[in-house]
Structure formats: C-alpha cells, structure tokens
Amino acid sequence: MKKIILYTDGACSGNPGVGGWGCILEYNGIKKEMSGYEVNTTNNRMELMAVIQGLGAIKEPCEVEVYSDSAYTVNAFKEKWIESWQLNNWKTSNKKEVKNVDLWKQLLQFLDIHKISWHKVKGHADNEYNNRCDFLATNEIAKYKQQKGI
C-alpha cells in the first residue's frame, strides 16, 4: 500500500466570513499543493475541507498520515469523539447538534478507503509544511477579496 503524507490548514477572515483551505500531498518526494476558498464559512469548516480535498485527490487506497494544526479535526478521531457523535445520532455529550455534520460524514467515507493516521502539529510555528498550508489558505482569502475589491 502506498504511503502518502497530507498536510492541511484552514483559515477564515471573520468567523464566519471568507475562508480558505490549503493542503500538500507528498508521495515519494513529489509534492502537490491544492487550495480553495468559500465565501461564507467558518475556520473549522475550512480545516475539515482541507482534509477532505486532500483525501479526495488520492486516486487509490493508501496509507495516509494527516498532519493538521486543528485540534478540532485531529481530536475528533484520536479521542474518538466522532464515534460518540455517531452513536448519539450526531449529538455532543451536552446533547447539542454536532456542527459541520455534512463535512464529518464526507470525511468518514475516506476511512473506508484509506488507512488514515492523525497527527496534531503546532500551528504558526516551525513546521514548514503547516506554514505553507497556512499561506495557501490565507492567499485564497486575499485573492478573493482582491477580486471583489474588499
């Protein structure tokens, strides 16, 4: 099984507001960068979208190491929050609706395809790839704002 490394980050200008996501896929020393934006979104949605877009670009089942500075994203899997949410009909331990259920469900589909391991990295620190993903995400926001004259 091929091993791919996926770095991700999301950003938002206002929360909610214009958001961007960025990711870097690495396989055998070859890197592919991807990014995009949404007009009315949240930071957490962009963090999830970066992972979804990265995983969606992988064309065959692989072993994927996901690196993210989003505790929201990583802990949902490492701390098994997502399993509890599903068992509780997408409700939190406080009986509130889980936010971003549509994206969580998309993300879950990739677990049936890939063997995924989750790694939390410190954001805005010395991780070159996380910093590059942050640049890709914030650059998408800047490009959108420039196009719209905002």
Brief summary:
The protein has 150 residues and is α/β, with parallel strands linked by helices.
What do you see in this structure?
It contains five helices and five strands, in the order βββαβαααβα. Helix 1 packs parallel to helix 4. The model has no long low-confidence stretch (mean pLDDT 96). A hairpin with a 2-residue loop joins strand 2 and strand 3. A five-stranded mixed beta sheet has the order 3-2-1-4-5. The chain is an alpha/beta fold and 150 residues long. Helices cover 41% and strands 31% of the residues.
Topology:
Elements: E1 3-14, E2 17-27, E3 30-41, H1 43-56, E4 63-68, H2 71-78, H3 81-87, H4 101-111, E5 115-120, H5 128-148
Parallel strand pairs: 1-4, 4-5
Antiparallel strand pairs: 1-2, 2-3
